[in-house]
Amino acid sequence: MCRDVTFAEIVESGAKNVDDAQRKLGVALKCGSCVRYIQEAITTGQTEFALDHEFSESEADSNEKANAL
Ligand code: FES
Question: N or C terminus of the chain with fewer C-beta within 10 Å?
Fold first, then answer.
């Protein structure tokens, strides 16, 4: 996905939030399309998403982060 880093790699990195994933892996620094998925992966451990995936309650924070990019 973002910068050829997979969601599994993000989860395995131990990143605690999107900011942490940015620092550790350099993801989520461009378009922001991945932010809500990264947040969801970190929150739930899920590493694959259906196109119609319904996000957990962390979506508000993720959207805020994506809009800041
Ligand atoms: S896909 Fe991650 S910043 Fe664009």
Answer: C
Per-residue pLDDT of the chain (69 residues), as tens digits, is 899 999 999 999 999 999 999 999 999 999 999 999 999 999 999 999 999 999 987 655 666 667 677
Prediction pTM value:
0.83
Q: Can you tell me whether residue 1 is helix, strand or coil?
A: coil
Tokens of 12: 């395995």
Out of 34, 40, 69, give the residue to mutate to test ligand 1, the one with the largest number of ligand atoms within 8 Å of its CB. 34
Q: Which domain holds residue 34?
A: 2-68
